[in-house]
């Protein structure tokens, strides 16, 4: 299979990716133009507008503009480019659609670099191109599409460095990784994962191994430290974002409280916030950052008091990551006026999951749910087989890069807030593992039996 086959098949993948995303984009434009907006979208868009109009990183809609401490800068800056040019939100979404297609292309080449099998790369790219949560999130004013592209690009350049010893690739990967952290703070510890990948993949003496690690850390930390220093200047405290503290109290700890006390997550959140307000030693209006960190510590205390309950909830939440995207699709196309969930926390369900699915979901989305279930089963089974084969083949670079990043996101993603949206950033890596599994399985079936 020569380069012409390689390019021709890649072109078809791009065509499929663009077509599916544009059909989705056109459907939202036609039936529900507000479907591009998620509850989190307005905050990002408001910050972008304030950056352009007032040079202020703030979610405030009127004077005085209060500096924001919950969001990191990359996605608001991305949106601010469109606001500066006077372009509407749907134009920004259309550009995200193109970025999502670029992710398919990078997945193709990353798979080929890791496995050396073109058919595996093709399967991986097709999975990303046809992944419904990736398509839906590309059509939402949310961070997932940009974050996923930055993540896959950073992995790609770091793998190029390991394979070809180009320090420009390592610097590029480290800078992109830093930008990924500033896009979604969940990636804050991800550089440590890539230090391990460098260690297992970079076969040389320890003294020579230290230079790549230093370059990776220095480039990544330099990018991230700019924002941390901004927070020190504005809030007199070194931190990346307060969103982790909010999630710790209002999602993770609330899930534990909900399970222990058999109340809804909303009720659990209300109770924990009341406790935080009653016990905070300062003035939360004067020190909002300090209050949120205080709440985060209370959330940690709640979790540490019930570690086995938290472990159970975390495992259930990982399962929720691999459920089909459902309610968000209905919301985007105007087929539902409010978000619904099939998962109950802390309370007994009054009916079966199937009956709630049929009752609260449109026929279109039910069809897409069935399709997603088939793709999820194929992807997970194929990825498990593919990772096993990589280990048996002693392809330590590919195995460690995919496996460790997946484990990282499995550990840091969880809680009652987890759903299919959280899966989008790891879809390319799952697809690469699945592509290798499928290609290896087909090749074995084709071998003549003696």
Can you tell me about this structure?
The protein is mostly helical. The chain has one domain. Helix content is 73%, strand content 0%. Helix 1 (3-31) packs parallel to helix 5, helix 7 (144-164) packs antiparallel against helix 8 (167-183) and helix 8 runs parallel beside helix 10. It is globular, with a radius of gyration of 23 Å. It starts with a helix and ends with a helix. The mean pLDDT is 92.
Mean pLDDT: 92
Please tally the helical runs, counting DSSP H or I stretches of 4 or more residues.
19
Q: Please state roughly what percent of the residues sit in beta strands, choosing from under 5%, 5-15%, 15-25%, 25-35%, 35-45% or over 45%.
A: under 5%
Oligomer: single chain
From the alpha-carbon coordinates, what is the Rg to the nearest angstrom?
A: 23 Å
How far is the N terminus from the C terminus?
A: 26 Å
Sum up the overall morphology in one term. globular
The biggest sheet amounts to: none
How many structural domains can be distinguished in the coordinates? 1
Q: Summarize the amount of helix as a percent range.
A: over 70%
Low-confidence stretches: none
Helix and strand pattern: HHHHHHHHHHHHHHHHHHH
Structural class given helices, strands, pairing? mainly alpha
Strand tally is 0
């Amino acid at each position: 299979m020569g380069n012409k086959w390689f390019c021709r098949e890649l072109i078809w993948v791009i065509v499929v990716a663009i077509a599916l995303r544009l059909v989705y984009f056109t459907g939202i434009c036609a039936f529900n133009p507000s479907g591009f907006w998620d509850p989190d979208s307005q905050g990002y868009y408001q910050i972008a507008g304030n950056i352009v109009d007032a040079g202020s990183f703030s979610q405030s809609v009127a004077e005085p503009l209060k500096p924001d401490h919950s969001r990191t800068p990359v996605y608001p800056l991305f949106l601010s480019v469109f606001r500066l040019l006077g372009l509407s939100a749907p134009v920004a979404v259309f550009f995200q659609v193109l970025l999502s297609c670029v992710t398919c292309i990078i997945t193709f080449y990353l798979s080929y670099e890791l496995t050396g099998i073109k058919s595996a790369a093709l399967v991986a790219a097709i999975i990303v191109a046809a992944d419904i949560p990736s398509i839906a999130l590309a059509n939402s004013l949310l961070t997932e599409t940009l974050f996923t592209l930055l993540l896959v690009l950073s992995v790609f350049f770091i793998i190029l460095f390991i394979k070809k010893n180009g320090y420009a690739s390592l610097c590029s990967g480290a800078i992109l990784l830093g930008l990924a952290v500033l896009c979604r703070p969940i990636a804050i510890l991800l550089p440590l994962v890539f230090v391990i990948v460098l260690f297992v993949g970079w076969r040389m003496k320890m003294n020579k191994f230290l230079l790549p690690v230093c370059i990776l850390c220095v480039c990544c930390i330099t990018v991230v430290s700019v924002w941390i220093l901004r927070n020190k200047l504005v809030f007199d405290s070194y931190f990346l974002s307060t969103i982790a503290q909010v999630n710790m109290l209002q999602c993770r700890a609330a899930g534990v409280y909900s399970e222990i006390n058999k109340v809804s997550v909303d009720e659990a959140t209300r109770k924990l916030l009341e406790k935080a307000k009653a016990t905070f030693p300062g003035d939360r209006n004067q020190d909002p950052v300090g209050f949120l960190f205080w709440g985060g510590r209370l959330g940690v205390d709640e979790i540490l008091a019930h570690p086995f309950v938290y472990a159970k909830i975390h495992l259930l939440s990982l399962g929720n990551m691999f459920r089909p995207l459902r309610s968000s699709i209905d919301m985007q196309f105007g087929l539902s006026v409010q978000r619904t969930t099939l998962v109950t926390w802390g309370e007994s369900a009054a009916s079966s999951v199937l009956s709630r699915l049929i009752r609260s979901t449109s026929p279109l989305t039910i069809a897409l749910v069935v399709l997603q279930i088939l793709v999820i089963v194929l992807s997970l089974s194929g990825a498990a087989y593919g990772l096993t084969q990589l280990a048996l083949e002693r392809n330590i670079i590919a195995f460690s890069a995919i496996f460790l990043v997946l484990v990282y996101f499995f550990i840091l993603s969880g809680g009652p807030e987890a759903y299919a949206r959280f899966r989008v950033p790891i879809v390319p890596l799952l697809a690469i593992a699945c592509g290798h599994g499928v290609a290896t399985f087909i090749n074995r079936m084709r071998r003549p039996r003696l």
